Fold this protein.
Amino acid sequence: QVHLVESGGGLVQPGGSLRLSCAASGSIRSISAVGWYRQAPGKQRELVARITSSGITNYADSVKGRFTISRDNAKNTVYLQMNSLKPEDTAVYYCNDNLRVILGTAYWGQGTQVTVSS
């Protein structure tokens, strides 16, 4: 099983940008779809963006036009570029195998904290 590790979070002012990285321990090509998820305090974890092995992307309505998901197969990494950040984007962000999440067999790492505040 390929393990995914998130990085790149931090504190940013409203309107700012961050790029999150999701590094795979093996070939990212072995994962049919990788998703970025987030969980804010007191809220359920939600899917923010997803990218398939063929490059098809999907976004939550709340981030469309602001976030961009991409993958670099050579680097076995999936990225989440976040622009025009809002305070409501504050959350712990996780990446995971989208299929395993659906099946309920996903292992969740520590994620990376994103805080949007002035």
User: Anything to note?
Assistant: The chain has a mean pLDDT of 96.
